[in-house]
Amino acid sequence: VPSRLILHVDMDAFYAAIEQRDRPELRGRPVVVGADPRGGKGRGVVATASYEARRFGVGSAMPISQAWRACPTAVYVRPDMDKYASVSREVMDVLRRFSDALEPISIDEAFLDVTGSVRLLTGRATAHEDAGTTIARALKAAIRETTSLTASVGVAGSKLVAKVASDLRKPDGLVVVPPGTEAAFLAPLPVRRLWGVGPKLEETLARLGIHTIGQLAATDPARLESRIGTHGHDLLELARGADTREVARTPDEAKSIGHEHTFGADTDDPERLRRTLLELCDAVARRLRQHGTTARTLTLKYRDERFQTLTRAETVRAGMDSGDALFAVAWRLFTTVHGRRRVRLLGVSASGFGGPAQRALFAPTEPRAADRVRDAIDERFGDGTLTRASLLGADASDAPTPDGKGSRRRRK
Ligand SMILES: [Mg+2]
Questions:
Q1: Contact, 100 vs 352, CB < 8 A?
Q2: Catalytic residue among 103, 109, 260, 314
């Protein structure tokens, strides 16, 4: 199993940091975002405390009356959730530039699997410590550039370890755990650092003489299960750094541009498959250019004669808006899935759209002159008037269409 490269990104004191960003008079002061303290008689809890307030012992989820007693001189601010949600969207958009395998787990936290982007983001062949550092630094810089806020990032081969790592050197932290060192990294940490270990379980474990994750990992499974139930098995696995959970992808249909083509008769003719893929990429590229955008992720859909459907995606470093750039990726993916069976359907979709900010971070490929000429002619005469020389001679019924139904190429 090739090692994965997973990032856990956690914004630092998110709500409080946004308030300090937007109100310079709050910078350097203890700020508590949450319920109205009403002079210590208020109800409700602290949503976020700035790092200055944390020095007074104020923390998230603390009763606001307790926060008031700990730090009456803090500036107490009501939450502005609309504002925080809009900053959150900006952050997630930045993360999406690095990978489509993005799993937000709260308004200010997300997992990102960049395994598939490593080579293109760093110019290196495999995932390893340096790649993780390079990507995490670029990501932190991009978040800061876009939002003027800091994030802490943990980099590891699993979600669990990445999450533990991001929390170790807050704020503005970066902790990379190289593959193979997960158990050693976790061992000295207190058990409460483990995901799913709350105060109650921590107490139970303490009574068993288990204080560190290393002690937990070395515990006899039968003994642990007799005390805390079947949950003990999973807990041991986590303590040993074994966590194979995947970063859930959150596909956003509205955020992709795609074309697909169903062949009139299933085919294994390599030239026909290649031409079809090329024309699908041309069609997607044309729409990207019409929208004035670029895409960093290409997804190939492949269905064979037995209706087995596979999708493969790849995210590249530079935004693509030319048919050639998309085809280079599509062909690479195609060769990884195409076997001996005939092909029934091919589809190409693009996502991970770039805006001006992306252009600043990653130099996009310039649309080639040929693409621009083709666009100009298409604008005047309609789609498909000018086709690639290599497409001439293709069966007209094989022309791809946006809705995926094979139909005649339009000629106006
Ligand atoms: Mg946070």
A1: yes
A2: 109
